[in-house]
Amino acid sequence: MASECERREFLLRMMQFPCTLLLLSVAGPLEVLAEAGAESEPKARHFGMGVQVDKCIGCGRCVEACKAENGVLREPYFFRTWVERYVFDSQGNVTVDSPEGGIHGFEPLNEHADVFRSFFVPKLCNHCANPPCVQVCPVGATFTSEDGVVLVDQDYCIGCRYCIQACPYGARYLDPRTKTADKCTFCYHRIQRGLRPACVEACPTQARIFGEVDVKTSPLTRLKRMQHVQILKPHLNTEPRVFYTGIDTEVR
Asked: What is the pTM of this model?
């Protein structure tokens, strides 16, 4: 007959057997989950901007803030961002003006003029997902960052002006001091520190909205969800990341 010690040892082994089977059955899936977690990477961020045209008052503070923050020349033909005024008469004709880029605001319209509608449209680099400027740069000085911001490497730029000619939005210029191309960067040095672009901070009516594209908690995503947004020159398939609300087809 088995002794009391032998019986106890047998019972302990039987109790441990189901636990061993359970561990063996889940070991495979656990390893798969661990490997999947190790291989997964955070989704890349892509920044964009929304412009609510009906909120823009043409004060020019965004233009001033941009020049001050980024050291843009004060001359009236060097801009990283500018503001245009569109005026429609009763016949449907439209006139566009942008005195000194709108940096000092706009003169009031003549009260006796035939004005059916008028509004202001801030302009800037559209930071396209398919940027023509990147495609034509012969030395790779113009490039798209990992977070979707189109930038210019001043050390590589040779000032050939190809990118300036290729931009369908007129958002680039040649800096006479460096002889290199310059443009809006979404204030890249600020957004890398978690700040908003200077033009967004300076806007007194919050006409400009900055955030990540296609992120549910982003203010830009909320704008796109709550309002009808449009892009400039959609037929070019450049896929701009600057979105407008309340613009007419005449806005180019």
From this structure: 0.82
CA neighbor of 242 nearest in space, from 43, 44, 80: 80
Give per-residue pLDDT as tens, 82-123.
999 999 999 999 999 999 999 999 999 998 899 999 999 999
Rounded to whole angstroms, the Cα distance separating 89 from 83 reads 20
The reply to whether 140 falls in a domain is yes
Cα–Cα distances (Å) from 199 to 72, 121, 184, 209, in that order, read 13, 14, 10, 10
- pLDDT digits over 203-248, tens only? 999 999 999 998 999 999 999 999 999 999 999 999 999 999 999 8
Pairwise CA distance, residues 182 & 176, whole Å = 10
Check which CATH number belongs to the domain holding 110 and give it: 3.30.70.20
Strand 150-152 versus strand 142-144 pairing type: antiparallel
> 130 is in which domain, residue-wise?
48-245
Q: Is residue 99 part of a domain?
A: yes
Domain count, the chain: 1
